[in-house]
Amino acid sequence: VQLVESGGGLVQPGGSLRLSCAASGFTFRNYVMNWYRQAPGKEREWVAFITSGGGGTSYADSVKGRFTISRDNDNDTVYLQMNSLKPEDTGVYYCRAPPYWGQGTQVTVSS
Questions:
Q1: Which among 82, 75, 97, 92 is positioned nearest to 40, based on CA atoms?
Q2: How many beta carbons lie within 10 A of that of residue 43, not counting itself?
Q3: CA–CA distance from 110 to each of 11, 29, 101 (Å)?
Q4: What is each CA distance from 4 to 24, 32, 73, 94, 105, in whole angstroms?
Q5: Distance CA 3, CA 23 (A)
Q6: Which of 36, 52, 87, 92 sits at a 20 to 30 Å CA gap from 21?
Q7: What is d(CA 59, CA 68) in angstroms, rounded to the nearest whole number?
Q8: In what order do the strands lie in the sheet with 17-24?
Q9: Which stretches does DSSP call E strand in the chain?
């Protein structure tokens, strides 16, 4: 099983990034998917969730209205579109297909 995140980087406050998580080694379309993040010195926190078919989503209050989770079951990939980024969004972002985790991608929001 592999979950490989990409798309992180350095962005100015107010900017946007799109994270991707490519899955392999399991039947992706059967799994709910989540994004988590971990800021320096803090515990890992849940960010967003999407159902296996993509018809249902849920978000942490801190990102609601700014982030959008989506998935492509034909290409075994889940995405996180992040808009209006704030410095407090800085951290390592992980995708998760319970019980599997990716290795994470760094997002830094700074001027």
A1: 92
A2: 6
A3: 6, 36, 27
A4: 9, 16, 15, 9, 9
A5: 5
A6: 87
A7: 8
A8: 2-6, 17-24, 77-82, 67-72
A9: 2-6, 9-11, 17-24, 33-38, 45-50, 57-59, 67-72, 77-82, 91-97, 100-101, 105-109
Q: Could you tell me the two tokens for 38?
A: 């971990």
The pLDDT profile of the chain, 111 residues, written as one tens digit per residue, is 999 999 999 999 999 999 999 999 999 999 999 999 999 999 999 999 999 999 999 999 999 999 999 999 999 999 999 999 999 999 999 999 999 999 999 999 999
Q: How far from 92 is each of 11, 55, 102, CA to CA, in Å?
A: 14, 26, 11
What tokens does 19 get? 């994270």
